[in-house]
Amino acid sequence: MEPIINIAGYHFAPLENLPELKKKLEQLSQALSLKGTILISLEGINLFVAGLRNAIGELLAEIRKIPGFSEFDIKESLSNKQPFRKMLVKIKKEIISFSVEGIHPASYSSPKITPHELRKWLDEKKPVVLLDTRNNYEIRMGTFQGAFSADIHHFRDFPQAVKKLPQDFKEKTIVTFCTGGIRCEKAAPFMEQEGFKNIFQLEGGILNYFKECGSLHYQGECFVFDKRVGVDPQLHETKSILCFQCQMPLKEEDQVHAHYQVDVSCPYCFGREKKKKAPNTRKSRRMKKEAALKEAALSSRFPGHSSQSAH
Fold first, then answer.
1. What is the per-residue pLDDT for 1?
2. Helix (H) or strand (E) holding 47
3. pLDDT in tens, 72-102
4. Catalytic residue selected from 178, 213, 222, 269
5. Residue 178 annotated as catalytic
6. What was the pLDDT predicted at 273?
7. Domains detected in the chain
8. pTM of the model as a whole
């Protein structure tokens, strides 16, 4: 059976005629049986797509024909099954939400450090702050050893988190990193704008580091935004899952915790599970009325029968 190719990639460059491009990418993806998400905006393209290799190749060939996108780069991994349920092409204000004026990755990007260069720095124990720009629930699944967390629940909270960083960080060498690099394209320039003097961003993010350097200096797995949930340093799908109740990613140890119950709770939401409310729709009201009428009919036909006899 031919494996599924999973690609993630982004590129910042001016785009025009977004509705026309959206329709074209939708039709092509459907024809190629691809699934995933493609975000397009005036600032560029961000995508997570999966399918057979030939189909992926055709999609990338089409994207690279767009002026300014000839060097559209991707990270690739394999899986045995399709990790996405459907194909979405969306027009967005930003391909990664940040909502800060003056940050334009297409015209300026902070200096990048390759995975091998970062590994060398860490091997040599060079003084460096590794700043994880991801959300807390992602970091819990795995991160670089000794990394400093931005302590955020959504990337749009990053600007406020930067203001809370230790003041001496402004003089230190900092390497920002995220899953595939796109968040750092905005996080790193913003930090420079805020007065941080020695900022680098990890080229291609954690996924590229896994590809080039494996697990060296990294602990755990990397959360990904599809049905695989997590990949290990060999870019293989892990056994992590999402909690049915709260959607928190759960590692294997979480799944054997006393508070984990399939489709009910996990260690992170136990005790605050939402009680299911009886639906209040026209259909449900009709069904209740029919049940009441049936109950009344039974009561009249069978003396002694009451709605409380079964309790």
1. 80
2. strand 44-51
3. 999 999 999 999 999 999 999 999 999 999 9
4. 178
5. yes
6. 61
7. 4-91 (3.30.70.100), 112-238 (3.40.250.10)
8. 0.84
